[in-house]
Amino acid sequence: MHMSRYTELSDFTTAFAKEYKGFMVAAGLDGQTVAKKLGRSTAYVSERVNGKRALDTEDVDALAMLVGGGWTGRTLMIELARRARAHELEELPENVGGSVHDQLPHFGKIDVAALRQSGVALAADERGGFEEEQEAKQELP
Q: What does the alpha-carbon distance between residue 120 and residue 5 come to, in Å, rounded to a whole number?
């Protein structure tokens, strides 16, 4: 019996990788360009965008920097997660041709209220909310 050297990833993680790859391709970037920005091999990027290994925040930060246009790692992470979740729910069509902005016309502005309504839990919400976290930090000795 042959065991795979890869750990099985969740459906969401696989969907997130698909969205990352779609965003990368739509922006006209290839694995070699992203790998160079990360200081990694093209095999590293390939394994992640093809759902063999999980992407991490450094991978998302690198893509955001390469794409530019006001994207940060955080905003791109939220957008890719939203799109991955929407695909799980079969709410969005597959990416087909065009530019990043043609495919994703709402890029650049994240609607936090809409994310919350769609069932996407933000990490700060799970901990009591961003404002509450900031107040609690100020109260620490």
A: 31
The crossing angle, in degrees rounded to 10, of helices 11-26 and 73-88 is: 120
Rounded CA-CA distance 13/79 in Å is 14
Contact 55, 48 (CB under 8 A): yes
Q: How far is CA 131 from CA 41, 84, 123, 136, in A?
A: 40, 27, 13, 9
Q: What tens-digit pLDDT sequence spans the chain (141 residues)?
A: 555 677 888 888 999 999 999 999 999 999 999 999 999 999 999 999 999 999 999 999 999 999 988 899 999 999 999 888 887 676 555 554 444 444 444 444 445 555 455 554 444 444 444 444 445 445 555
- Residue-range domains of the chain with CATH: 11-107 (1.10.260.40), 111-141 (no CATH)
Distance CA 119, CA 63 (A): 25
- Closest Cα to residue 12, out of 93, 87, 104, 94? 87
For the entire predicted model, the pTM comes to: 0.61
